[in-house]
Amino acid sequence: MSSDGLLKALNDSQRYLDVVHKPQLGKSEAEWLVETTVENFAKYYNSGFIEYRKSVAEAGDFASVEWTGRGATFRDVMGKEYIDCLGGFGVFNLGWAHPKVIGAVQAQLQKSPLPTQELLDPLRGMLAHLLAEITPGDIQYSFFVGSGTEAVEGAMKVAKLYTRKSGFIAAVRGFHGKTTGSLSLTGKSIFRRPAMPLHNNIYHVPFGDAEAIEQQLSIAKEVGNDIAAVVLEPIQGEAGAIVPPDDYWPRVRQLCDEHEVLLIADEVQTGLGRTGKLWGVDHWDVAPDIITSAKALGGGVMPIGAFMASPKIWSVFNSNPFIHTSTTGGNPLACAAAIAAINVTLEENLVEQAAEKGEYFIKHLKEIAARHSDIYTDITGKGLLIGQHFVNDDIGYEIASGLFKRGVLISGTLNNSRVIRIEPPLVMTMDEIDTVLNRLEDTIQSLHSTTSGTGAELPKVSLLSDDTKSHIVA
Q1: Is 357:425 a contact under the CB 8 Å cutoff?
Q2: With contact defined as beta carbons under 8 Å apart, do 235 and 271 qualify?
Q3: How, if at all, do strands 262-266 and 227-232 pair?
Q4: Residue 348 CB partners (closer than 8 Å, separation 6+)
Q5: pLDDT tens digits, 360-395
Q6: Sign, CA torsion 279/88/445/356
Q7: Residues 6 or more apart from 301 whose CB is under 8 A from it?
Q8: What are the backbone angles phi and psi of residue 382, rounded to the nearest 5°?
Q9: What value does the mean pLDDT take over residues 401-416?
Q10: Residues 319, 125: Cα–Cα separation, whole Å
Q11: Which one, of 253, 305, 429, lies nearest residue 357 by Cα?
């Protein structure tokens, strides 16, 4: 590296820091930031990311670059406001920049941002205690990491250490992360195939089919493929908010006990109130042996993940506390955020809010879907983890981009727009839900108008019924 290059880095870093410290930007500054961000992503991060993001294609001359947010709304750097129905794929349960979480992190920042690694840091113990109080069954011990995929990796490791077995059963279309171990569990070829071979002794079965798990466990025992654990999302998130039959989780718990394998609930996305229960497994009163958490655990402010288990299982860690470590996992800033996130979730009754708002949202989405059966095939989900299922990818993309033009951000996926999640902050107001429903209806009407004008088969369908109109605020 030349001295000129280092001098440039010094000057560029200072200019970037100046942006960080500015509460808002003028028009020319904002335009510079948009152009710089697009260029930086294209040249130094991932050019495919720029090509994929619908915000770039739909925002006109300038890409949409996020800037600030509060509650369930955020603004881009040009000042346009959006209702957030994506919620960072489950990160923003508490909304953007919840003041209690921000305050906890700021207070801890003034004391010690990172631990010594040698002494005992109090917040790690506090958070572990809180999680023991709110997790199902006899789960008591926790280990903290920086993300959901790390939490799944840790859950796999402790399961293998405890059982002295190496195999796992997971679900088709399930999602558990993209590092090598968790990717082995993930049930989508588009993510798995490029990285093959992955962890061996992994078996995938259809989600919601307990008999398939029973059959796989029996086969594994017969041929000697020792299974350490069954790993499942309570409700499949990335697959499109897929809810299993009501007898599924109790039956899987029974099967795991009968075959002496562990049950791991991947609650990275479903945990901490997202589905209208504190934990997704609470819908079926099932206690897993190991549970993972992340996303919302950091209160939308700090990244943190955790895997947790009962004392019996955790004994393999207690006997050798250095068999699994992380330099920055469970740092004081992240733990402060998580402690505040748990406090806010309970204090503001966000679990109950998610259940009530989710029931309302799903009811009206099903009404819209019924009126537009040429566009929709289904609405699925629980609480505020909702899946919109469209007849094809093209329509799903048009709905997502049309809503974005109207100031509503919902999720699209790189490989499939046929199923698009609605996953807003749990603090979203009823008025904001009504606004989203109206903008969705307007998007559908626009789509019908466009296709009818070109002679396409997609017909126009009537606007909201009078009964529905009376409940929805424009």
Answers
A1: no
A2: no
A3: parallel
A4: 427
A5: 999 999 999 999 999 999 999 999 999 999 999 989
A6: positive
A7: 97, 98, 101, 102, 105, 337, 341
A8: -140, 145
A9: 80
A10: 18
A11: 429
pTM: 0.92
> In sequence order, what DSSP letters do the residues of 326-354 get, joined into one string?
-SSTT-HHHHHHHHHHHHHHHHTTHHHHH
- Which distant-in-sequence residues (6+ apart) come within 8 Å of 276 by Cβ? 283, 351, 352, 354, 355, 358, 359, 382, 383, 384
Residue 69 and residue 81: Cα distance in Å, rounded?
A: 9
Q: For residues 273 and 300, is the Cβ–Cβ distance under 8 A?
A: no
In angstroms, rounded to a whole number, what is the distance separating the alpha carbons of residues 208 and 284? 13
CA–CA separation, 418 and 376 (whole Å): 9
When pLDDT is cut at 50, 70 and 90, the band that residue 48 belongs to is: confident
- Three-state DSSP at 305 gives strand
Name the residue with tokens 């997971």. 170
How many Å is the Cα radius of gyration of the chain?
23
Going by their DSSP bridges, the two strands 408-409 and 81-84 should be labelled as parallel
Q: Output the pLDDT for position 452.
A: 63
Average pLDDT, the chain: 91
Distance CA 134, CA 275 (A): 16
For the chain, domains (ranges, CATH) are 65-96+350-469 (3.90.1150.10), 99-347 (3.40.640.10)
CB 342 within 8 A of CB 130: yes
Whose tokens are 């405890």? That residue is 162
CB 369 within 8 A of CB 25: no
Burial class of residue 126, CB neighbours in 10 A (0-12, 13-18, 19+): middle
DSSP annotation string for 358-427: HHHHHHHHHHHHHHTTTTEEEEEEETTEEEEEESSHHHHHHHHHHHHHTTEE----SS--SEEEE---TT
Residue showing tokens 């718990």:
253
332-347 vs 350-371: helix axis angle to the nearest 10? 70
Residue type, 27: K
For the chain, give the longest Cα–Cα distance: 72
Dist. CA 171–CA 158, nearest whole Å? 20
